[in-house]
Design brief:
It is built from 2 helices and 2 strands, in the order αββα. Strands 1-2 form a two-stranded antiparallel ribbon. By secondary structure, the chain is mainly alpha-helical.
């Protein structure tokens, strides 16, 4: 129907208006990931060190240890 077409056109125009800025953000993020040697997501860093993917409870322990050494 006409109203469905109008809604779709409105969505497309919003998408089109944001496309260039969003593309630039994605390119910037991809470049940063490449510089940091990110190979997959999620990739976790704690105090500038890449942490292997592990169970969430282990992240808590790593963060706690990092906080202790920061004091």
């Amino acid at each position: 129907t006409a109203s469905t077409f109008e809604r779709a056109l409105k969505i497309w125009r919003r998408f089109d208006a944001r496309y260039e800025a969003t593309l630039e953000t994605v390119r910037t993020d991809a470049s940063l990931g490449k510089m940091l040697n990110v190979k997959s997501t999620p990739t976790i860093y704690i105090n500038g060190r890449m942490v292997p993917t592990t169970a969430p409870a282990q992240y808590d322990a790593l963060i706690a240890a990092a906080l202790k050494t920061a004091k």
